[in-house]
């Protein structure tokens, strides 16, 4: 009975989203994205897309999202919002932080990103445009991933503050402001 109710609720939500979607205009960016996606599939292997494409998207989005925070820390007006106002930022500290970030991204995260291809193959995740989920499914999946990732970081960060491992692993994290 409970299973049937949850299925009915999900079906109702799906129908509601489909109904709302029918009123929305067509996305003018969909065809250019489709063309670019199909060009990528025609010219690169799945391994190249999953590995190097993921790396490029990760690095570009990471550093673009960091630009506002980097700029704000050097604006005098923004100093009142600093969490650690007694620790001023310097270019030397920023350079050291950037070198550490680049090391972590290319020697720790890149090997993990290399597993993306094998993950997509194991779970049979398609690459074709026609098999892409609808926009609302992608939004829900991104939201779910953000919640899981945030919970993961929270609990892992708490674990890294344990007295037995803090000074060996996590102390580097608190070296930067």
UniProtKB/TrEMBL annotation:
Name of the protein described by the UniProt record: MSMO1 monooxygenase
InterPro entries: Sterol_Desaturase_Related
Organism: Anhinga rufa
Domain of life assignment: Eukaryota
Alphabetically ordered keywords of this record: Membrane, Monooxygenase, Oxidoreductase, Transmembrane, Transmembrane helix
Regions annotated as coiled coil: none
Segments passing through the bilayer: 60-79, 100-120, 135-156
Keyword Transmembrane helix: yes
GO-annotated molecular function: monooxygenase activity
């Amino acid at each position: 009975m409970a299973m049937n109710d949850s299925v009915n609720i999900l079906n109702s939500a799906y129908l509601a989203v489909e109904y709302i979607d029918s009123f929305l205009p067509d996305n003018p960016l969909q065809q250019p994205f489709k063309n670019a996606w199909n060009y990528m599939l025609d010219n690169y292997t799945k391994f190249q897309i999953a590995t190097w494409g993921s790396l490029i998207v990760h690095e570009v989005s990471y550093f673009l999202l960091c630009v506002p925070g980097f700029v704000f820390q050097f604006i005098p007006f923004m100093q009142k919002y600093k969490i650690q106002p007694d620790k001023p930022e310097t270019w030397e500290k920023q350079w050291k932080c950037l070198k550490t970030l680049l090391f972590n991204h290319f020697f720790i995260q890149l090997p993990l990103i290399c597993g993306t291809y094998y993950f997509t193959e194991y779970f049979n995740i398609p690459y074709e445009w026609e098999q892409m989920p609808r926009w609302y499914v992608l939004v829900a999946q991104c939201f779910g991933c953000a919640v899981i990732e945030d919970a993961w970081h929270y609990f892992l960060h708490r674990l890294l503050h344990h007295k037995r491992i803090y000074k060996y692993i996590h102390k580097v994290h608190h070296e930067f402001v």
